[in-house]
Design goal:
The structure is a single chain. With 319 residues, the chain is mainly alpha-helical. Helices cover 84% and strands 0% of the residues. The radius of gyration is 22 Å and the shape is flat.
Amino acid sequence: MYAYQSDHVSALSCFNQALDIYTSNNNSSGRARTLRDLAEAHRCRDEHAQAFAFYSEALQICVDAGDENGRADSLFGLAETHRYRREYGEAAELYLESLQIHTNTGMKRSRATDLRGLAEYIDFKAKALQIDTDVGERRETAMTLWSLAEVHRFQHEYSEAINVYSQALQIYIDIGDQQERARTLRCLAEANRFQQEYITAHNLHSQSLQICTDIGDRYGRGVSLWGLAEGHQALHDYDEAIKRYSEAAQLFTDMGEKYWRAETLMSLAVTNQMLAHLSEAISLLTEASELWKDMGDSQRASESDALKRLQIAGGRSNK
């Protein structure tokens, strides 16, 4: 109530009392929520350092607990704090991360809020870039275009996304930024894949793979291989898909990249299931589930376990 009445001093006092109670009761969910309330009260008082600290603490609790929506809310709060400090680049990255989680968890209202935050960032940059026309600002232009394309992609507006990604890509080609060129090629590939333009997607992922190989970008190479595998799977070319997924999984293992290894193992499992290799699929899903649990992502771990149960049930019914 105090927060809504802009009595932030009283609100801070109440929030601190609530935080003590939740801490004493080992209630991590209540603690994270109250830390975000504290952060918001400090942000409204322009006490950005304190807001960062409380949002960051809430974020860590949610990551540890596997609370995806709480994690997204904490990321959004951090993004808002950066935006109020005019740190728009940092804000955009956090808005996008929050948007991805809210999209995955089906939180439409929160997703709309994320999009509004991104829209404000893009509007600000668009106005600034009308003034900044020297070569040094072209990278900023490309970053803004890439962010706008991501918004279109999250809204399933793939034609618009392809158009804007293409504009960003041309700038990265012109200024010779190979790493960002490769990343944008991968985004273009995925937008085309979602439109079932598999040949175009394959060519774009292949270009990204070549660039990443040339510059020694193992992460980009792994994601490119994953994208190629996804295309092969969609075209029922399962043997080639398994080959590409396996190459990507090995790269992610060597790098210690858990998220993409887990994602790739799940895709490998689905492909093996298509070939009726049920024992391989179950083994891959078990490993993926353990990785998701290690990362605190209980939702994806549950997805892996559910798929594994289906595989086991399918294997029994075939006996």
